[in-house]
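Extended Data, panel c. Modelled sequence:
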Amino acid sequence: MSWKVTVFAARPIIEAALVAHEDAWDWDHEIVLSGREVAEDQPEDWVLEAWLDRKPTRADKTAITVLFAETKPKLIVEELPETDWLVASQEGLEPIRAGRFHVHTPDHPAVDEPGVFDFAIPASQAFGTGHHATTAGCLAMLTHMKAQGLVVRNCADIGTGTGLLAFAALSLWPRTLAIASDIDAVCVNVVQDNAEANGVTMGGRRGELVMTVADGMTHPVLEARGPYDLILANILAGPLVHLAPDFGKALVPGGHLLLAGLLETQEAAVRAACRKAGLRLAARMVNGDWSILWMRKRGR
């Protein structure tokens, strides 16, 4: 059984609710939240959707309502039919091309083109199939960083989800030491399965990937394998602000930080936190409503 709570409102109202959700330290993570435009031809009309595996309680409805500050939203509550969500989520996901990367679900064929890295990533319990604007933007920015001559010997992918960005970094810099982490333990098996399917070797040597469960940068393995010359973090604006000092400390002088998961309206706050941590903007990209930032730590 699954349920959905829907709220329709203008774009600024939904965006503000999403920001409030990021700052809600006591949020029940069994309530999965997302926001989007209603249709491509209605860019200012947005919808917020909350999914639950139970009938929403009064407390659940209150938690969603308070995200809207002084506005009292109309909550539309509905029980959803039984569905194989994994299969359903893959339907309609067309392959994408972002930079040097071609990403597709397993029901689409691979491509064999010179200079193009092909990844088959099934829709799953983890974020990061490449179809979201933030993940695709990161793939494009990684391609740009490589073209600018960036050399990576030691990298970390924080909040890896499916492992796609770590795989991409290993493709561009095949001799790098690489570690991926996520706060959600379910991602361990997801990353291992995706690595096997895409020919990525799990292990601790150069060209291999270590996977661990960690909250931010606080983990003995992450600390032991640092400092890094590239950190990837496609998460949310709130955690990016909170983790900016830790990112700065974990990078070598002159090291690089690729950030995503923030709306363009949240970019100023993230960049301000990075400046305080000794990081400066090297390049930025906007994909839809989302900013992708290449930050660089001051050198010696």
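The longest helix spans residues 133-147. This feature is highlighted in the accompanying rendering.
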